[in-house]
Design a protein that fits this description.
Layout lengths: L1 E10 L3 H32 L5 H12 L12 H19 L15 E6 L3 E4 L2 E4 L8 E2 L8 E8 L5 E10 L9 E6 L5 E3 L10 H18 L5 H35 L2 E5 L3 H4 L6 H7 L1 H14 L3 E5 L25 E3 L6 E3 H19 L12 E3 L2
Parallel strand pairs: 8-10, 10-11
Antiparallel strand pairs: 1-5, 1-7, 2-6, 3-4, 6-7, 8-9, 11-14, 12-13
Helix pairs in contact: 1-3, 4-5, 5-8
């Protein structure tokens, strides 16, 4: 089975390559912000909606401006790709999948995408347009297909990465027969209906004291000074370490669950709404629920697994799995409770995971679909 896959590696540019990439990042960011302002002003001032073609034609005229001659010093492909990314951002906004596009900042993640006509791939070596030497890539794994596009990125901690989009022959996981329900939590990131608890490494909490110290040092530095840049870099490197640890934990966990089970049921969570609770926002963000669900979705699609999600309002924690009795209230600090009807002892997270599995199987067996609205125990089959 062939599947479009992304392969991301770290690379170490030479001084000349670093300079060329800095110019490319700057020009791509400028074009993106310029096109965003152009489309926004056109709508509010002239009540006219611009398309990708309109911004592309406007970019051609912009390059002829003597004051913008520096735009010609870099490859034109990343600039056009920046316009395509902006057009996609507007499409996602109008279809309700994301917020209104925002301007890109210099100190945030920088990126540039090269189409197939803007790079050379030969004998496992990548050479970008406007460069005469291949990139020094640290290969952690290999692929066999031909890259369709390449994205070069630089994170706030000054690390450089290259991402290849490749159509690769995907080796599927062996067929499985197990079905599980998953409850997402704070004490354990994931608890399954079989009683497996993933635990919570709490990566942010582990480095919180060090991060607090570095941020205090950064706040004392004079703006625009070299010492402030060095302090900012230390903070960015620690944030990158925390993010890498969290991502590694979630990848290992979701891969294990997808490999061992054929059908997985979860609950739909409005993570952004839950983050409004300032008492739990930091802990919820450290769990990475949204990223975990995203990984489960695409891995289930890749390996022909079924992923289902029950409605978020179903009382999975308050409902006794053996008899179906529903409590009126169940505070978050209560981790286990005894059913007043059948006297069974219920572990909060395991009981919720079993209820999620039961409801998911019931709705799937009835063949119900969400249609236009969502019912109390609606199920959305994603895979």
């Amino acid at each position: 089975m062939k599947q479009l896959c992304g392969f991301k590696y770290r690379f170490y540019p030479t001084e000349s390559q670093r300079l060329e990439l800095a110019k490319t990042f700057g020009c791509t960011r400028f074009v993106y912000n310029w096109a965003l302002a152009l489309r926004t002003d056109s709508y509010y001032q002239e009540n006219k909606t611009l398309s990708y073609t309109d911004t592309s034609n406007a970019l051609t005229k912009l390059k002829k401006d003597p004051e913008k001659a520096w735009l010609k010093q870099v490859s034109s492909v990343p600039l056009q790709q920046g316009l395509r990314h902006l057009n996609k951002a507007f499409k996602n906004f109008f279809e309700g999948r994301s917020k209104y596009p925002r301007f890109k900042k210099k100190n945030n993640r920088q990126s540039a995408t090269y189409a197939k006509n803007a790079f050379t791939w030969q004998d496992g070596k990548l050479t970008l347009a406007k460069m005469n030497r291949p990139l020094k890539i640290r290969w952690s794994r290999y692929f066999t297909g031909e890259p369709k596009s390449v994205t070069i990125s630089k994170d706030p901690s000054n690390r450089y990465f290259v991402s290849f989009l490749v159509e690769e022959e995907l080796e599927l996981f062996p067929p499985a027969t197990e079905k599980i329900g998953i409850d997402l939590g704070v004490k354990d990131v994931m608890v399954t209906s079989k009683g497996f608890a993933s635990g919570n490494p709490k990566h942010y909490q582990k480095y919180q004291a060090r991060l607090k110290l570095l941020q205090r040092r950064l706040a004392r530095k004079k703006k625009g000074s070299h010492n402030r840049d060095k302090a900012r870099l230390k903070v960015a490197k620690l944030h990158a370490k925390i993010a890498d640890c969290r991502r590694d934990f979630l990848h290992k966990l979701t891969t294990q669950l997808v490999r061992e089970n054929q059908t997985i049921y979860t609950e739909t969570l409005a993570v952004k709404n839950m983050m409004a609770n300032h008492k739990l926002a930091k802990v919820i963000a450290d769990c990475g629920w949204g990223e975990a669900l995203r990984q489960l979705e695409y891995k289930c699609q890749w390996h022909e697994r079924t992923l289902g999600a029950i409605d978020r309002w179903f009382p999975s924690s308050k409902r006794c799995h053996p008899c179906g009795y529903i409590l009126d209230k169940l505070p978050l600090e209560v981790r286990e409770w005894t059913c007043p009807r059948c006297s069974s002892l219920n572990l909060r997270d395991v009981n919720a995971a079993r209820n999620i599995l039961a409801v998911g199987q019931t709705v799937a067996a009835c063949g119900l679909s969400s249609g236009g609205g969502r019912s109390l125990i609606d199920l959305a089959i994603l895979g």
